[in-house]
């Protein structure tokens, strides 16, 4: 086995060189930094596309004839949902794992770079075909709409690249376990491993769809495709992806937030239970995107509602754990009054402030999710712009603000610099601007959706329909939110550039919280992922075996392609 | 694994609310006939236009103020065009797509269903309030998606 311990976590004062002083080797830094730099570019491209959409839909702007609203929409979705989130998560989780497990394995580095290369090439290919108008299929690319065949090859490369990164993570995780028999993996590594396990599940579904069905059909090797099969496989991937981001985000809430506020992890064991439930119960949640689809029975849909609701449970656990962590940190500082601990939280620390605003956003975001997943109410909001508003609360606010918060310690940790007071203040302002822009935009989207305005639709008055006339005001509010968000984006990119290249040298740490009661540790079997993977497979089978067999053995004659420029 | 007393309480209350909520959804679905549209019938997308159901798409009266209509959802229109019905009419819509996936949404109502090629979708609604309702496609279906709309006038 390759040597992993070459980068032990060094304590302050025993620095050997600049890189080792921050507890991470320069080769681990390079890998994480490379991933983060693609995330940086993705934010710019996706953000600009988002702004333009807002202005077009509200009628403030008309696009030149060489690019369509839907090309921008596709770019926005692919760049943010697929590219930004995956590159950022990998950069963050690899760096944190390196920190808690004492460096990444040699093979992990190799797999990491191979994955990075494939993902980057795939991203460039996908972006090229989107921006040249050859892939106006949105990030969901529902068949039988068809993009340029090489667009799908680009997507497939991204997915294969992610899978290579999964292998990389598993190698470091398992080799640590082998070298530390009888010991529980650190909580952060447990989170990271869980994220990559979910990624394997998600990727397998989308790989079967893209590589097994779409690519042969797009190149014309097979004449037809089954659109329902495609929707089902896509959402098994798509909804799992949502919880991949959530799990990545809450790893920072559970592990780093306690350290930042001067407290300890509330309960290491319950955190692991929440993680395991998320992994086991997750994939079938995808079916709530298909509540209004034909070809799935009412009974089956109800089963899917129950399965989707399973993931509310870990969210309740998280809500409790976060507040309990904060209260205990305050009590440890001597606060006696019922709510006095609230004031002792480090509100002016951007790392904490971004995280807690993200947590608050998750309250309405989670409630909206329950609404969307409910059989009947779904009918009111399905495919309305309410759903877009929901997505911008969950990913756009909760996950993104958490990622921004993470970046305020991750980038200095990697660059060997420190966050100055000025940058910190700017980061607090960034959080307020971003949250404000999202509140306005997402709020307007929610209301407009309830009024019936559809998502994913270019500017139109529907022949002067009176119903559609009521939507115009909210579209203007959405555009205003978009403008505020672009200011937030510019601030963020400035902060990132400062932290990466210009801030003064320092030894910023990657905050890792300790457990309150090491005696109350989880049983060792928590680390045996074969159990959780098996349980997750059972839960997936309960949801998917019936419909997939039904579609595969059905009489669907299939659909020929409809080319989408 | 120690679970704090308050956390137990919190999780128990949360779970009870969740079960009540699921119970309500179940009663609505299985006893009040409010389940989502879930028609199972299939159709070859390439022969939708010639098929018996969709060859002659017009409003048919099948009972006392009860109507039936087969609608083809295609890029970028619903066939036949605008509809007119009396107030209080119940309309049973049967939908299919000869091309890509579309959505069928009638504003100011809860009518909302996906039209996926290969499948027939069915949905019914009683129009009590007179007025002009907008039917629109709410699933992106191509570069003319925003033009895909009709009206139902209830008199």
Précis, in short:
Helices cover 69% and strands 1% of the residues of chain A.
Describe the SSE topology.
The complex is a heterodimer of chains A (565) and B (155).
Chain A: H1 18-21, H2 26-57, H3 69-101, H4 106-131, E1 145-146, H5 149-179, H6 187-218, H7 227-260, H8 268-281, H9 298-309, H10 312-332, H11 350-373, H12 377-381, H13 385-415, H14 421-450, H15 466-469, H16 472-502, H17 529-553, E2 562-563
Parallel strand pairs in A: 1-2
Helix pairs in contact in A: 2-3, 2-4, 2-16, 3-4, 3-5, 3-13, 4-5, 5-6, 6-7, 6-8, 7-10, 7-13, 8-10, 8-17, 11-13, 11-14, 13-14, 13-16, 14-16
Chain B: H1 5-30, E1 60-63, E2 66-74, E3 77-79, E4 83-85, E5 89-96, E6 102-106, E7 112-115, E8 121-127, E9 131-136, E10 149-154
Parallel strand pairs in B: 2-5, 4-10
Antiparallel strand pairs in B: 1-2, 2-3, 5-8, 6-7, 6-9, 9-10
């Amino acid at each position: 086995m390759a040597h992993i311990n070459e980068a032990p976590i060094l304590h302050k004062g025993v620095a050997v060189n600049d890189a080792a002083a921050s507890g991470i080797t320069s080769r681990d830094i390079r890998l994480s930094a490379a991933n983060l730099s693609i995330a940086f570019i993705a934010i710019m491209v996706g953000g600009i596309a988002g702004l333009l959409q807002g202005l077009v839909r509200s009628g403030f702007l008309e696009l030149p004839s060489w690019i369509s609203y839907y090309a921008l929409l596709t770019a926005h979705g692919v760049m943010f949902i697929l590219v930004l989130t995956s590159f950022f998560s990998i950069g963050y989780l690899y760096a944190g794992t390196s920190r808690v497990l004492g460096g990444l394995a040699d093979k992990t580095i190799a797999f990491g770079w191979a994955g990075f290369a494939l993902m980057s090439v795939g991203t460039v290919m996908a972006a090229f075909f989107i921006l040249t108008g050859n892939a106006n299929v949105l990030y969901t690319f529902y068949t039988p709409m068809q993009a340029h065949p090489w667009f799908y090859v680009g997507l497939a490369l991204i997915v294969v690249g992610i899978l290579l990164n999964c292998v990389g993570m598993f190698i470091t995780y398992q080799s640590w376990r082998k070298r530390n028999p009888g010991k529980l993996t650190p909580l952060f590594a447990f989170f990271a491993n869980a994220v990559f396990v979910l990624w394997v599940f998600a990727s397998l579904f989308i790989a079967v769809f893209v590589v097994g069905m779409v690519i042969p059909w797009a190149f014309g090797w097979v004449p037809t495709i089954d659109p329902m099969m495609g929707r089902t496989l896509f959402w098994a991937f798509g909804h799992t992806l949502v919880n991949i981001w959530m799990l990545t985000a809450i790893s920072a809430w559970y592990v780093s937030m306690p350290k930042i506020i001067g407290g300890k992890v509330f309960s290491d064991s319950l955190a692991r239970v929440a993680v395991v439930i998320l992994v086991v119960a997750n994939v079938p949640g995808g079916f709530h995107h298909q509540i209004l689809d034909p070809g799935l029975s009412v009974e089956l849909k109800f089963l899917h509602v129950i399965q989707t609701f399973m993931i509310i449970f870990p969210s309740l656990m998280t809500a409790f754990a976060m507040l309990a962590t904060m209260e205990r940190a305050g009590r440890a500082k001597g606060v006696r009054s019922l709510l006095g601990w609230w004031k002792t939280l480090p509100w002016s620390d951007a790392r904490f402030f971004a995280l807690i605003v993200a947590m608050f956003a998750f309250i309405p975001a989670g409630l909206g999710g329950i609404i969307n997943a409910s059989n009947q109410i779904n009918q009111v909001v399905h495919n309305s712009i309410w759903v877009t508003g929901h997505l911008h609360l969950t990913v756009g606010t909760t996950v993104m603000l958490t990622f921004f918060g993470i970046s305020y310690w991750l980038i200095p940790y990697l660059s060997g610099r420190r966050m100055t007071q000025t940058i910190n203040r700017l980061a607090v302002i960034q959080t307020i601007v971003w949250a404000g822009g999202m509140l306005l935009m997402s709020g307007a989207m929610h209301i407009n959706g309830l009024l019936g305005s559809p998502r994913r639709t270019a500017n139109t008055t529907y022949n002067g329909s009176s119903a559609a006339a009521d939507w115009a005001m909210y579209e203007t509010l959405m555009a205003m939110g978009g403008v505020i968000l672009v200011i937030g984006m510019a601030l963020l990119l400035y902060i990132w550039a400062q932290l990466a290249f210009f801030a003064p040298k320092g030894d910023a740490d990657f905050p890792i919280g300790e457990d309150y009661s090491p005696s109350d540790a989880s049983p060792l079997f928590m680390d045996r992922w074969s159990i959780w993977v098996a349980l997750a497979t059972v839960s997936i089978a309960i949801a998917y075996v019936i419909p997939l067999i039904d579609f595969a053995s059905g009489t669907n004659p299939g659909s020929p392609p409809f080319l989408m420029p | 694994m120690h679970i704090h007393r308050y956390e137990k309480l919190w999780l128990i209350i949360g779970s009870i609310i969740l079960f009540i909520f699921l119970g309500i959804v179940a009663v609505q679905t299985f006893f009040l006939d409010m389940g989502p549209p879930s028609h199972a019938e299939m159709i070859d997308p390439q022969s939708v236009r010639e098929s018996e159901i969709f060859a002659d798409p017009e409003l048919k009266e099948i009972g006392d103020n009860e109507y039936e209509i087969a609608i083809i959802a295609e890029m970028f229109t619903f066939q036949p065009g605008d509809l007119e019905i009396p107030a209080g009419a119940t309309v049973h819509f049967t939908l299919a797509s000869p091309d890509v996936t579309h959505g069928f949404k009638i504003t100011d109502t809860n009518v909302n269903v996906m039209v996926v090629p290969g499948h027939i979708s069915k949905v019914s609604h009683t129009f009590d309030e007179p007025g002009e309702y907008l039917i629109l496609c709410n699933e992106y279906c191509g570069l003319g998606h925003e033009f895909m709309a009709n009206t139902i006038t209830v008199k």
